[in-house]
Amino acid sequence: MAKKQQKRDTYKYKLKEGNEILNFGITDDLKRRESEHKSEGKQFSKMEKVGPAVTRESALKWERESIKKYKKSHGGKSPSDFEDKVYQTLVKDNLLWKEKSTILPLSSVILNLKNFVQEVKQEIKNFRKAEDDRLENISIE
After folding, report:
1. Does residue 5 form part of some domain?
2. Which domain, by its residues, includes 55?
C-alpha cells in the first residue's frame, strides 16, 4: 500500500532585527503571517523565508530544532520576541517586580501596568489630601 504524499504547503521563516534573530516560525501564508506579527506589535526589520515550502510535519521539526540550536549557542536563552523585550524593559526600569525567569504574556504585562498606574494615581490623591490637610492646620500668626 502506497503512503499518502503530504502537501508541501508550509513555509519556515525567521523574524529578524538587523542580524539578530527575534523569532522562528512556520506558516502557510507568509504575507498574512507578517501582517499578523505587525498588528500584534512585534518589532522587526524583516521576515526572512527559509528554504522552499515543506510539509507541516517537517516545518514543525525545523522550528523545534532551530530554537534548540539557538538556545544551545546563546547560553540557554530563547530567541527574544516582542513580549520578552517588553517584559525585560519593564523589569529593568523597575515597572514590574517579578523574577527574571518568569515570562508573562503581553496581556499580563498590560494588566500589571494598568494596576501600577492605578496605584500611582491613588498615591497622588493621598498625597494631595494629606498636603491639603496639613495646609489647613497651619495657623497664620
Report:
1. no
2. 10-80
What's the pTM value of the predicted model, to 2 decimals?
0.55
Say whether both 67 and 94 belong to one domain.
Answer: no
Residue range 54-88, pLDDT digits in tens: 998 999 999 989 988 988 887 777 776 445 555 55
- Is 5 strand, coil or helix? coil
Q: Are 13 and 30 in contact (CB under 8 A)?
A: yes
How many C-beta atoms surround the C-beta of residue 20 within 10 A?
11
**Given CA atoms 95, 101, 104, 106 in this order, what sign does their dihedral have?**
positive
Give the Cα separation of 24 and 83 in Å (integer): 14
Q: Does 105 share its domain with 137?
A: yes
Q: What pairs with residue 48 in β-bridges?
A: 14
Residue 14 confidence (pLDDT) above 90:
yes
Amino acid letter at 1?
M
Q: Are residues 76 and 103 in the same domain?
A: no
pLDDT digits (tens, 9 = 90+) for 127-137: 788 877 777 77
